[in-house]
Design brief:
By secondary structure, this protein is of the alpha/beta class. It has eleven helices and nine strands. Strands 4-3-2-5-6-9-7 form a seven-stranded mixed beta sheet. It starts with a helix and ends with a helix. The model has no long low-confidence stretch (mean pLDDT 92).
């Protein structure tokens, strides 16, 4: 029986499927996460999903300020015991989706670290991006399939709305694959370690950000549709003929599909539609 299984048993705790609890038990993987965050005593760090504190205990001695966030109160006793010796550490019991990073922001941008539950990975990422002005970088373990979507390039079947959103606001890297047997209980799929460096400015310049993401949504909503058909169903006051003229002026083929467009090309389309309207 592993150390994690022993501690769960000793504290009469079972991993909760409804909370997506899969605990990373491989020491080398935990070290990889900590190393990838490139921590120093000048850093303010937030860990999402501290659980039993096995990763927290590696982060705390390296950080300046450390906040261990956990939703499940079952881990209160374990976390208090595990992290009691670290004077720089504050344990917070809260749901990340309801947590405002402004409450821990003291002027130093936060490094976020976490092993994210599969079922709410995208909502968590969207929540963090909405508070990106407080964040320096995000180092997270996610489902391998999601990681591949995050870093996907144009022309790939994995390239889509999530790719565009994250590549617009961050510089993403897929660092390492963690096989499913690294976790307890063992999930059905492998995971991957991803690092997202928040950009000071978006990766492409656009006239109107809302329009840019409306175009992104339109071209990926029904992936099999051509660019012309996707944009024609977006709900703005433009005829199909007018959209065809816009694309022709940009020298972008109306028959192309969204997954083949770069962020720069999407930005050009967005700006052209914004100016036309």
């Amino acid at each position: 029986m592993s150390r994690i299984q022993n501690r769960l048993s000793e504290n009469k705790i079972r991993a909760k499927k409804r909370l997506g609890q899969n605990f990373l038990s491989n020491e080398q993987a935990l070290e990889s996460i900590t190393r990838s965050a490139n921590l120093s005593k000048s850093d303010c760090v937030l860990e999402i999903g501290a659980g039993m504190g096995n990763l927290s205990a590696m982060i705390a001695p390296l950080a300046g300020e450390f906040y261990a966030l956990e939703k499940d109160l079952s881990f209160k006793k374990i976390l208090n015991k595990e992290l009691a010796c670290f004077k720089n550490t504050t344990i917070i019991f809260s749901d990340i989706l309801k947590f405002d990073l402004a409450c821990i922001f003291s002027g130093t941008k936060i490094k976020v670290i976490g092993n994210l539950p599969y079922y709410i990975t995208s909502p968590i990422l969207l929540h963090l991006l909405g508070q990106r002005k407080y964040i320096k970088s995000i180092v997270i373990t996610v489902q391998k399939e999601v990681a591949e979507r995050i870093v996907a390039s144009p022309g790939s079947k994995n390239y889509g709305r999530l790719s565009c959103l994250l590549q617009y606001h961050t510089k993403p890297q897929l660092l390492e694959i963690f096989p499913k047997h690294f976790f307890i209980p063992k999930p059905k799929v492998d995971s991957a370690l991803v690092k997202l460096e928040i950009l000071d400015n978006p990766s492409v310049k656009v006239e109107e950000e809302k329009m840019f993401f409306k175009v992104v949504k339109a071209i990926f909503l029904q992936r099999r549709k051509t660019l012309l058909n996707g944009l024609s169903n977006a709900g703005w006051q433009l005829s199909k003929k007018e959209i065809a003229v816009i694309l022709e002026n940009l020298d972008i083929a109306p028959s192309i599909r969204g997954e083949n467009l770069t962020l720069h090309e999407i930005a050009r389309i967005s700006d052209a539609i914004f100016e036309f309207l």
